[in-house]
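Dear V.,

Thank you for sending over the compound details. I've combined the ligand you provided, zinc ion, with the protein sequence from our construct and run the structure prediction for the complex. I'm sharing the raw inputs here so there's no ambiguity about protonation or stereochemistry in the SMILES, which I know was a concern on your side last time.
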Amino acid sequence: MTDHARELARAIRDCEGLFLVVTGAGISLASGIPTFRGSDLGAVWKRDVTELGTVRYFDQEPEGSWRWYLERFEKVLGARPNPAHSALVDIERWRVARQAPFLVITQNIDGLHRAAGSTALVEVHGAADRVRCSAYGCRNGAPDGSLPRSQVDLSSFLAHPTRQNVPRCPECGELLRQHVLWFDELYSGHRDYQWPRVLDASDTAELVLFVGTSFSVGVTEQVLSQARERGTPVYNVDPAGRPMRGVALVKEPSEVLLPRTAAVLDADAHPTR
Ligand SMILES: [Zn+2]
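Below is the predicted structure of the protein with zinc ion bound, written out as structure tokens.
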């Protein structure tokens, strides 16, 4: 176990360009959030996700969409960061102190990287703690508006989850929706997804670390294909991961490996400037 941490720490130390970390549901498992499409018992979106997690469904049945998300966000919104999230903050600070570029792109909407203190962060699939107006161009809607979920009064919808009670935009009166990327939407659909920054990072990364991703969505494909093309070293931390071409697989829980890696970096730290 220590060997993997040492190897990863060495790669992080030797990387002078951008160190890009891409995280998926696996990193939040230890925070009690079931995976997006995992095989573990209780994977919340295992069924019907590609049908219900769509703007098409929201347009047809906004009250169903809201009910479905409120049920699913219950666990997400009460979760706390685990040692893997904290270790990535430590690694970010280690890099920043050496003026070495660093970025986390997360597919998770749970906000746990933010809660842990990550600042170089792209939440490419949106955030469960925000909502937005469904009307494009409204100041609370796409392309760049949103609202904190805590500002929305859900009491009447929770009491009577009917179409009439679906929360509405305080600005224009249109229906509010979740501030997340749906399956029939594009990464470019909202500025908060920071898609140009993702493209730029995948084009320039000199070290890539995947943590707990299922490699089933566009952002992982984008980063991995660019890394392969450019010959960038790629690590994948996933206890259930499968071997892939050009990827060094580390089958260890991220909440164990990443704190050890951060500890190795910290212990080996010496003045270089
Ligand atoms: Zn509006």
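A first observation: The chain has two domains: 1-33+80-125+187-273, 39-78+129-180.

Warm regards,
I. M.
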